[in-house]
Design a protein that fits this description.
Helix content: 25-40%
Structural class: alpha+beta
Low-confidence stretches: 1-5, 173-181
Number of helices: 5
Radius of gyration: 16 Å
Shape: globular
Mean pLDDT: 79
Length: 181
């Protein structure tokens, strides 16, 4: 029998994919995460459960806290609606990643305007990136969730927008599924 390790403790990560339509294009709200010992990587705002947040019972609490900490905003959805916005779950043994999709008009408050020291990493000021570039620059493990979110957000804003992004979606989906880690 293997000894008990932290790898056996359930944990989770919540990512918040905030998207908007501006000037006929879809943008996503991201941050650069600069590990103090490495180079920066672009990611969706989010993080894991912290002390006092029960694994898999406090997911809505975690995603709301991460929105406040990493973006400086509040999510204007009740827990049931927010739970329905979880569009992708990536399981890695006892660890799960939950990806939530919301539009810009479902958050309130001012975006954080200074970098943030978040323990072992520095978080940039949140910024908007046009969707056609996001697939190339977000964490590899976030790409499939992004493509699912892009597909859904196109339908939310305008059915005709789906055609605009259809080629991107088809090309990037095949590439991301085969190269996702």
């Amino acid at each position: 029998m293997k000894p008990y390790t932290d790898a056996h403790v359930p944990s989770y990560f919540c990512a918040l994919m905030v998207m908007r339509l501006i000037d006929g294009k879809i943008e996503g709200l991201v941050i650069n995460c600069h590990k103090k010992s490495g180079r920066p990587k672009m990611k969706w705002p989010g993080g894991g459960n912290e002390e006092g947040e029960k694994p898999f019972l406090d997911i809505m609490k975690t995603v709301r806290r991460e929105a406040r900490e990493e973006l400086g905003v509040e999510i204007n959805l009740d827990d049931q609606t927010l739970a329905g916005r979880c569009i992708f779950i990536h399981e890695l043994g006892f660890h799960k990643r939950f990806f939530f999709l919301i539009s810009e008009d479902e958050i309130s408050g001012e975006l954080r305007v200074v970098e943030k020291d978040d323990g072992d990493e520095i978080l940039s000021i949140p910024f908007w990136v046009e969707a056609t570039y996001l697939c190339e620059i977000v964490f590899p493990s976030h790409k499939i969730a992004f493509l699912m979110g892009l597909h859904l957000i196109c339908r939310w804003y305008r059915p005709a927008m789906e055609n605009y992004y259809q080629i991107l979606f088809e090309e990037k989906t095949i590439h991301s599924i085969t190269n996702c880690t």
